[in-house]
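Figure-free illustration: sequence to structure, shown twice.
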Amino acid sequence: MSTPCNLNRRSLLQGALLGLFSVSGISACGFRLRGSVTIPYKSILISGRPSPQLRYDLERIIATGTNAKVVASGKDADLILDIVSEDSTRQILTYTATGQISAYRLNNRVVFRAFDNTGAEVIAESDIYVIRDLDFTTATVLASDIQQQQFLESMRSDLALQILRRIATLGRVSK
């Protein structure tokens, strides 16, 4: 006869085995978590006109997910990342049968370019944009505003990561 202690151990072991098989199944299909980005530059200056949120996301991702560091002076930088513009817009996507708004489309676009420490342009003026659709109901206006802010934060973080991935494709390694 099984005791409650043996049942707990058995269910714990079954749960651990199920988790192990799930993880091994996901890894077998080629899935992997976003890891660090290897950037061919050791120090980056962020210049131009990024919003405080985009600057924070760029600095955070550079500090935690790359082999580079953010510097405050151009003379210390191997790469100068110039944020030319950042634009966030919201447009109405759909209406209900009664004429009320039922969905928005959020657009976030960043125009940037990059120079090395000699002043040579390594990335010509480029733009990256992210689009998300947001459902909306008048019954949950406050929750929709909070969800929209969360979407925008996620979009800015995604833009910052895409910019750094574009930089990672450069082949030059600084000394």
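We now fold a second protein in the same way, so the two outputs can be compared directly.
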Amino acid sequence: MPQTLTIGDPAPDFDLPVSTETTCSLRSLAGRKAVLYFYPKDDTSGCTKEAIDFNALRGAFDDANTAVIGISPDPIASHAKFKAKHGLDLTLLSDDSKAMLEEYGVWAQKSMYGRTYMGVERTTFLIDREGRIAKIWPKVKVPGHAADVLAAAQAL
């Protein structure tokens, strides 16, 4: 059963592949703020818009000493194609085991057209420099979201 994380909780650590050669972990970001945005699937309309919006604000996030990391269950090869197709310079992690998705409570039962299935609930977490959850955006609506997250990161 997924846990419910709240503001002030320590963010669960992870170690997920960025590529076939490298991984990313929360502990490797120690001393920096981090945005973890969980999204359902590469190259779908909402996920593409969200990634493009975060990518466009990359410099401002860097100025705010904040890493931006996208996580989905898609494989590394899918992430590479997605990034190349849309000119993205974001860190995208692959959680094909869904362990991190479950730990963050974003792997959830969803429904569409009367059919229920398990999938990623679009959610964003802002993690402070000490590794604690500073803000959570559940059930994200994409328009304006990246700018809202940037404003919160700058204020933190």
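Summary for the second example: The mean pLDDT is 92.
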